[in-house]
Fold this sequence. Notes:
5-stranded antiparallel sheet; 3 domains
Amino acid sequence: MALTTCRECAESVSTEAAACPHCGAPGPTRRGLVRSEGYQPQPHISKEEREQRAYRLRMALVGVILVAAFGSMFALRNSGPPAAPAAASAPASAPTLHVPFRGELLTGTHITRGGDLGCLVRGLVKRAVELNADKVAFERYVSASLKDGTCVLLKPDLTVYVEVVDENDLIRIRPKGEPTTIWTIRPAIAR
Protein backbone atom coordinates (compact mmCIF):
# COMPACT_ATOMS: atom_id res chain seq x y z
CA MET A 1 0.00 0.00 0.00
CA ALA A 2 1.58 3.23 -1.19
CA LEU A 3 0.76 6.81 -0.27
CA THR A 4 -0.12 9.54 -2.74
CA THR A 5 -1.89 12.91 -2.62
CA CYS A 6 -5.65 13.38 -2.74
CA ARG A 7 -6.83 15.02 -5.95
CA GLU A 8 -9.16 17.32 -3.95
CA CYS A 9 -7.33 18.41 -0.79
CA ALA A 10 -3.72 17.40 -1.65
CA GLU A 11 -3.29 15.55 1.70
CA SER A 12 -1.57 12.15 1.94
CA VAL A 13 -3.89 9.23 1.25
CA SER A 14 -3.55 5.51 0.53
CA THR A 15 -3.78 4.40 -3.12
CA GLU A 16 -6.30 1.76 -2.02
CA ALA A 17 -8.62 4.17 -0.13
CA ALA A 18 -12.21 4.40 -1.42
CA ALA A 19 -12.59 7.93 0.01
CA CYS A 20 -10.19 10.55 1.35
CA PRO A 21 -10.08 10.48 5.19
CA HIS A 22 -9.47 14.27 5.25
CA CYS A 23 -12.03 15.71 2.79
CA GLY A 24 -14.24 12.71 1.97
CA ALA A 25 -13.71 12.89 -1.82
CA PRO A 26 -14.58 9.56 -3.50
CA GLY A 27 -11.69 7.87 -5.32
CA PRO A 28 -9.08 10.36 -4.08
CA THR A 29 -6.24 8.83 -6.07
CA ARG A 30 -8.01 8.63 -9.44
CA ARG A 31 -7.09 11.29 -11.92
CA GLY A 32 -9.37 12.69 -14.64
CA LEU A 33 -13.12 12.13 -14.67
CA VAL A 34 -14.66 10.26 -11.81
CA ARG A 35 -17.54 8.14 -13.05
CA SER A 36 -20.62 7.90 -10.90
CA GLU A 37 -22.15 4.61 -9.90
CA GLY A 38 -24.33 3.10 -12.60
CA TYR A 39 -22.24 4.64 -15.39
CA GLN A 40 -22.69 2.77 -18.67
CA PRO A 41 -20.28 3.50 -21.52
CA GLN A 42 -21.88 4.25 -24.91
CA PRO A 43 -22.10 1.25 -27.20
CA HIS A 44 -19.66 1.24 -30.06
CA ILE A 45 -21.09 2.74 -33.27
CA SER A 46 -19.95 0.98 -36.38
CA LYS A 47 -18.37 2.80 -39.30
CA GLU A 48 -21.39 1.99 -41.49
CA GLU A 49 -23.78 3.51 -38.92
CA ARG A 50 -21.67 6.71 -38.72
CA GLU A 51 -21.62 6.96 -42.52
CA GLN A 52 -25.38 6.40 -42.68
CA ARG A 53 -26.01 9.17 -40.09
CA ALA A 54 -23.72 11.56 -41.97
CA TYR A 55 -25.54 10.78 -45.25
CA ARG A 56 -28.94 11.48 -43.65
CA LEU A 57 -27.66 14.76 -42.25
CA ARG A 58 -26.30 15.82 -45.66
CA MET A 59 -29.59 14.93 -47.38
CA ALA A 60 -31.58 16.92 -44.81
CA LEU A 61 -29.30 19.92 -45.38
CA VAL A 62 -29.70 19.64 -49.17
CA GLY A 63 -33.49 19.46 -48.70
CA VAL A 64 -33.54 22.65 -46.60
CA ILE A 65 -31.41 24.47 -49.19
CA LEU A 66 -33.68 23.35 -52.04
CA VAL A 67 -36.83 24.45 -50.22
CA ALA A 68 -35.28 27.86 -49.53
CA ALA A 69 -34.13 28.25 -53.15
CA PHE A 70 -37.49 27.27 -54.66
CA GLY A 71 -39.34 29.49 -52.17
CA SER A 72 -37.19 32.46 -53.19
CA MET A 73 -37.69 31.75 -56.89
CA PHE A 74 -41.44 31.45 -56.39
CA ALA A 75 -41.58 34.75 -54.47
CA LEU A 76 -39.53 36.54 -57.14
CA ARG A 77 -41.59 35.07 -59.96
CA ASN A 78 -44.86 36.17 -58.40
CA SER A 79 -43.71 39.65 -57.42
CA GLY A 80 -43.62 40.88 -61.03
CA PRO A 81 -41.69 43.85 -62.32
CA PRO A 82 -41.61 46.97 -60.13
CA ALA A 83 -44.18 49.58 -61.01
CA ALA A 84 -42.63 52.50 -62.83
CA PRO A 85 -43.57 55.82 -61.25
CA ALA A 86 -45.74 57.91 -63.50
CA ALA A 87 -44.59 61.38 -64.45
CA ALA A 88 -46.80 63.83 -62.60
CA SER A 89 -45.58 67.07 -64.11
CA ALA A 90 -48.89 67.78 -65.80
CA PRO A 91 -51.79 68.70 -63.50
CA ALA A 92 -54.04 66.25 -65.37
CA SER A 93 -52.03 63.26 -64.06
CA ALA A 94 -52.19 64.40 -60.42
CA PRO A 95 -54.09 61.96 -58.23
CA THR A 96 -57.34 62.78 -56.61
CA LEU A 97 -57.07 62.97 -52.87
CA HIS A 98 -60.22 63.20 -50.87
CA VAL A 99 -60.37 64.13 -47.23
CA PRO A 100 -60.58 60.86 -45.29
CA PHE A 101 -63.85 60.05 -43.63
CA ARG A 102 -64.63 57.77 -40.77
CA GLY A 103 -66.34 54.64 -41.92
CA GLU A 104 -66.40 50.97 -41.22
CA LEU A 105 -63.87 49.03 -43.28
CA LEU A 106 -63.11 45.49 -42.36
CA THR A 107 -59.81 43.94 -43.24
CA GLY A 108 -60.01 41.62 -46.21
CA THR A 109 -60.05 41.74 -49.99
CA HIS A 110 -61.28 44.91 -51.71
CA ILE A 111 -60.99 46.71 -55.07
CA THR A 112 -59.32 50.11 -55.55
CA ARG A 113 -61.08 52.92 -57.41
CA GLY A 114 -57.81 54.12 -58.99
CA GLY A 115 -56.03 57.47 -59.28
CA ASP A 116 -55.25 57.75 -55.57
CA LEU A 117 -51.82 58.12 -54.06
CA GLY A 118 -50.23 55.05 -52.43
CA CYS A 119 -46.95 55.36 -50.51
CA LEU A 120 -44.49 52.96 -48.92
CA VAL A 121 -44.49 54.96 -45.68
CA ARG A 122 -47.57 56.03 -43.70
CA GLY A 123 -46.12 59.49 -42.99
CA LEU A 124 -45.95 60.35 -46.72
CA VAL A 125 -49.69 59.79 -47.15
CA LYS A 126 -50.40 61.73 -43.96
CA ARG A 127 -48.35 64.67 -45.29
CA ALA A 128 -50.25 64.56 -48.62
CA VAL A 129 -53.54 64.77 -46.72
CA GLU A 130 -52.21 67.80 -44.80
CA LEU A 131 -51.18 69.52 -48.06
CA ASN A 132 -54.48 68.76 -49.81
CA ALA A 133 -55.85 72.27 -49.12
CA ASP A 134 -52.97 73.95 -51.00
CA LYS A 135 -53.27 72.65 -54.57
CA VAL A 136 -49.84 73.89 -55.75
CA ALA A 137 -47.97 72.50 -52.73
CA PHE A 138 -49.92 69.25 -53.00
CA GLU A 139 -49.08 68.77 -56.70
CA ARG A 140 -45.40 69.57 -56.05
CA TYR A 141 -45.28 67.08 -53.18
CA VAL A 142 -47.01 64.33 -55.20
CA SER A 143 -44.76 64.97 -58.21
CA ALA A 144 -41.61 64.65 -56.07
CA SER A 145 -42.92 61.51 -54.35
CA LEU A 146 -43.76 59.85 -57.68
CA LYS A 147 -40.41 60.84 -59.13
CA ASP A 148 -38.33 59.39 -56.29
CA GLY A 149 -40.40 56.17 -56.25
CA THR A 150 -41.67 56.40 -52.67
CA CYS A 151 -45.27 56.75 -53.90
CA VAL A 152 -47.31 55.38 -56.82
CA LEU A 153 -50.70 56.01 -58.33
CA LEU A 154 -53.12 53.20 -57.60
CA LYS A 155 -54.60 51.53 -60.66
CA PRO A 156 -58.37 51.20 -60.94
CA ASP A 157 -59.92 47.81 -60.15
CA LEU A 158 -56.76 46.57 -58.42
CA THR A 159 -57.53 43.72 -56.02
CA VAL A 160 -55.95 44.48 -52.65
CA TYR A 161 -55.99 43.06 -49.16
CA VAL A 162 -56.61 45.68 -46.46
CA GLU A 163 -54.33 44.93 -43.53
CA VAL A 164 -54.62 47.97 -41.24
CA VAL A 165 -57.03 50.88 -40.80
CA ASP A 166 -55.60 53.50 -38.42
CA GLU A 167 -57.30 56.25 -36.42
CA ASN A 168 -56.93 58.78 -39.29
CA ASP A 169 -58.59 56.45 -41.82
CA LEU A 170 -55.24 55.80 -43.45
CA ILE A 171 -55.05 52.20 -44.57
CA ARG A 172 -52.27 49.77 -45.32
CA ILE A 173 -53.01 47.58 -48.33
CA ARG A 174 -51.20 44.77 -50.08
CA PRO A 175 -51.93 44.26 -53.78
CA LYS A 176 -52.87 40.69 -54.62
CA GLY A 177 -49.77 38.60 -55.36
CA GLU A 178 -47.37 41.28 -54.08
CA PRO A 179 -45.26 41.08 -50.92
CA THR A 180 -45.00 44.89 -50.52
CA THR A 181 -47.56 46.87 -48.56
CA ILE A 182 -48.68 50.41 -49.45
CA TRP A 183 -50.32 53.11 -47.33
CA THR A 184 -53.19 55.09 -48.82
CA ILE A 185 -56.41 56.81 -47.76
CA ARG A 186 -59.64 55.02 -46.87
CA PRO A 187 -61.67 56.41 -49.84
CA ALA A 188 -59.19 54.75 -52.25
CA ILE A 189 -61.12 51.53 -51.69
CA ALA A 190 -64.24 51.29 -53.78
CA ARG A 191 -67.30 49.89 -52.07
